[in-house]
């Protein structure tokens, strides 16, 4: 059986390491393989048409998450809420879409002891911000502010909040300091984009989740840790969303999360050493 991650750029995706470790731990490495393919939106449907019965499923990263949902025959609630999917499972000739990012964020926060925020500020206005809002609603949050460079371009996140059942306020990222009286600050910005606000966030007393996992720690994560805050990095989210994908694609009841964690951490350490 085959599975793979698709996206652009996808060269540095950690998914092959995580899924490969799961296959090894489950004793199916000789029967299952997990690849990596560079693919943009216009290439997704041709790729899907070329997937034969040996294909179990795909992990989708940017810019394919909306296209994946559109290409699916059915989708889970999280995909509909967010308006994007990061997983396609092939079953009986049908494409089933899932959003395991929502699950991954929730599990990462629970694991770190930050799984019950009532209020939150989400930095960024893209698909990952929408997944964060959906995850926060599942964790019991009642107030969420989404801060984007251009709030008008984050209307999709507000709509995702409405579909998920939580009201979302939009505000300019430049006004972040006015919105830090919260339980959790969730950063969904690219690496380095949240650096100017690291000290202010650390001083707020909020727990911090930063979707970036490499290089780690980010300025946001480091400042929060030095201030004694609870800090959750993006690797934990990536790990748990991948574990959910393994379960969906292989049908196993429980993915070998700890084996996947060790493999991922070892690979990140190797990459960090190469940069030094």
UniProtKB/TrEMBL annotation:
One of its GO terms (molecular function) is shikimate 3-dehydrogenase (NADP+) activity. Gene3D superfamilies: Leucine Dehydrogenase, chain A, domain 1, NAD(P)-binding Rossmann-like Domain. Residues 234-263 form the SDH C-terminal domain. SUPFAM superfamilies: Aminoacid dehydrogenase-like, N-terminal domain, NAD(P)-binding Rossmann-fold domains. Residues 5-88 form the Shikimate dehydrogenase substrate binding N-terminal domain. It comes from the Bacteria. Keywords: Amino-acid biosynthesis, Aromatic amino acid biosynthesis, Oxidoreductase. Transmembrane segments: none annotated. InterPro entries: Aminoacid_DH-like_N_sf, NAD(P)-bd_dom_sf, SDH_C, Shikimate_DH-bd_N, Shikimate_DH_fam. Pathway: Metabolic intermediate biosynthesis; chorismate biosynthesis; chorismate from D-erythrose 4-phosphate and phosphoenolpyruvate: step 4/7. Its EC number is 1.1.1.25. Pfam families: SDH_C, Shikimate_dh_N. NCBIfam families: PRK00258.1-3. This is Shikimate dehydrogenase. It comes from Nocardiopsis suaedae.
